[in-house]
UniProtKB/TrEMBL annotation:
This is UPF0056 membrane protein. One of its GO terms (cellular component) is plasma membrane. Its main location: membrane. The chain crosses the membrane at residues 6-29, 41-63, 69-91, 114-137, 149-174, 186-207. It holds the Pfam family MarC. It is found in: Cell membrane. Belongs to the UPF0056 (MarC) family. The keyword Membrane applies. Keywords: Cell membrane, Membrane, Transmembrane, Transmembrane helix. PANTHER family: UPF0056 MEMBRANE PROTEIN YHCE. It is a multi-pass membrane protein. InterPro entries: Multi_antbiot-R_MarC (IPR002771).
Length: 208
């Protein structure tokens, strides 16, 4: 992978996972936990998300082939999905959807399972992130070396996510709602451009 491709992959996955947006939800879900428990929950949720996303990066293309879905078709469909996520980010709909999803998951699951549900799935390793890693792993000319780079990007993004969750309390004090909103909207615009690129590449591949 070229440095430009690595940066693009990192930015794509970082924007989709949105650790800055997850931090307030993490604080709300662990409000009654001690600092040590918060650290354990953060580490466990990130580890689960890494396992899920790496599994889809490695086996996602095989799954598509088994279902008879071509990569260009999936690239178009995935680009449309990512564009919808960017639309939600720009118009402040994604945060509310995440909050609703988290509340529903906590209500349905045992409180001790919040590391897996909803933190790891679907907040970190949700449909958007899974789609992104399959698309990144399926880039033209991709081989085992490129797949290793994609896995490295996954681990890097989730390592940053873990770091943000571990300092979520001071970040919550420093960043007000207005700052989070501005950052989310800017990241949404970047994701929209990346999504359009995915769709364009998929359409060109289908035509070819």
């Amino acid at each position: 992978m070229t440095p430009e491709a690595l940066i693009s992959a990192f930015v794509t996955l970082f924007v989709i996972i949105d650790p800055i947006g997850i931090a307030p939800l993490f604080l709300a879900l662990t409000a009654e936990r001690s600092a040590a428990e918060r650290r354990k929950i953060a580490a466990r949720s990130v580890l689960i998300a890494v396992v899920v996303l790496v599994a889809f990066a490695v086996g996602g293309l095989w799954l598509l082939q088994a279902m008879g879905i071509s990569l260009p078709a999936f690239r178009v469909a995935g680009g449309i999905l990512l564009f919808w996520i960017s639309f939600e980010m720009v118009f402040e709909q994604r945060t509310r959807r995440k909050e609703t999803s988290a509340e529903r998951s906590v209500a349905e699951e045992h409180p001790d399972d919040i590391a897996a549900v909803p933190l790891a799935i679907p907040l970190m390793a949700g449909p958007g992130a899974i789609t992104a890693v399959i698309l990144l792993a399926g880039e033209p000319g991709g081989g085992w070396i490129e797949l290793a780079w994609v896995i490295a990007v996954i681990v890097s993004v989730l390592a940053v996510t873990l770091a943000i969750l571990l300092v979520a309390v001071p970040i919550g004090h420093l960043m007000g709602k207005t700052v989070r909103t501005v950052v989310t909207r800017l990241l949404g615009v970047i994701l929209a451009a990346l999504a359009v690129q995915f769709v364009a590449d998929g359409v060109l591949a289908l035509i070819a």
